Amino acid sequence: MLTLAERSAPYRPAGPLGRGPLNALSRMDPPERTKIFVAIIVVVTIVAAFAMLPNTEEKAQVLLSQGRVAEAVALYEAKRETTRLNPFEAYSLAGLYQTQGETGMLTRLLEEEVAIRPQSDWARPMLVDIYRAHGSYGNEARILAQLFAQSPTEGTYRRLIGLYRLDGDRTGERVTIELGRANGLASEHDLARLERLKSTLAMDESAQWRSSDLAGPRFAQETLR
């Protein structure tokens, strides 16, 4: 016979539950069990919903909204290893690299982006800023020349001429002035400089031709010996 106290106590099933989590749950009051079940359902629902998101972009945005930046970066990088990022994903990853100070990773991503999408309107300006900040004038001129070909502006024109003169690249300077003249950006001083560059380059090419012409027979004779 059960005592009055035993009859009024909450039901706790006995049986072969052992010491596992089910046994622990069975010893809890119903409100406590309900809270745990609800928490489990919420977690499972979030995981399932995340898994059902259609693409990397949306999954990364969810992670970023939760402050899980490293996981979002890893998600983008995992996709990048197997397939090409779409423009928005590449732009998002570039922004994350920039905020984290990952200059090397950012530079490689941007160079890849301009190679894949020549008409990209955001990657080249970022590359120019990086190369300028690090004093990589040759690389800056290379990217700036691409920007100038797409959209000739006075500022780009002047900077590009300065970079070529700094680097001693007379061919690059000549081509830039010719493009500047075609777009109404070249001054009288630039045009005079262009004529000097043309004559200098012509003299250099002639000298190189004569040098190679004279060296050819001598090289052949030395080889035969």
UniProtKB/TrEMBL annotation:
Q: Where are the residues of the annotated region Disordered?
A: 1-25
Which superkingdom is the protein from? Bacteria
Alphabetical keyword list: Membrane, Transmembrane, Transmembrane helix
Membrane-spanning residues: 36-53
Protein name, as recorded = Tetratricopeptide repeat-like domain-containing protein
What does the organism's lineage look like at the top? Bacteria, Pseudomonadati, Pseudomonadota, Alphaproteobacteria, Hyphomicrobiales
